[in-house]
Amino acid sequence: MANEYELTIDVDAPADVTWSVVGDPTAVPRWFVKYVECTVEGDVRTLRSAEGAVLVEQLLDRDDVERRYSYAVTAGPPLKSHLASFQVVARGADSTIVWRTAAVFLDESIDTEQRLAGAQREGLERLRAMCEAAA
Fold it and tell me: Looking at the 3D structure of the chain, how many domains does it have?
């Protein structure tokens, strides 16, 4: 069974502005500093770190009306399974970013949330700053 968890962050920006940042599949290196390069070809997103590590993801579905998309890591880290999604929820004149993750490492003794959530929280903080600057 996958380790599943959800991280959220409130943003002082309208949902459409927040979605314009969060929903850009090529923007990951701007807010997740581990990665320095991102390419998207069809439904495949490839991220490269400064050290040369490669992460390959499949972009699964996207709904611009609901402001959400999902993706799965298909190559790179030692994962047995991975599924994640972003959603931007309107909160009055502001918004909330929701990042859901369900994953299992090959070494199933690894706690996925403990391993990944710290860097994800840092990424959410950068996303918030970008969205608020764009508002």
Answer: 1
pLDDT at 133: 97
| Cα–Cα distance measured from residue 24 to residue 68, given in angstroms and rounded to the nearest whole number | 11
Range of the domain at 23: 3-134
Three-state secondary-structure class, residue 67 = coil
Helix ranges restricted to H, 2-111: 15-22, 28-31
Tokens 């047995």 — which residue?
80
DSSP string, 36-61: EEEEEETTEEEEEETT--EEEEEEEE
- Is the pLDDT confidence value at 1 over 60? no
Residue 2 has pLDDT above 80, yes or no: no
CATH number at residue 7: 3.30.530.20
Going edge to edge, which strands form the sheet with 94-105?
3-11, 94-105, 79-91, 68-75, 54-63, 44-49, 35-41
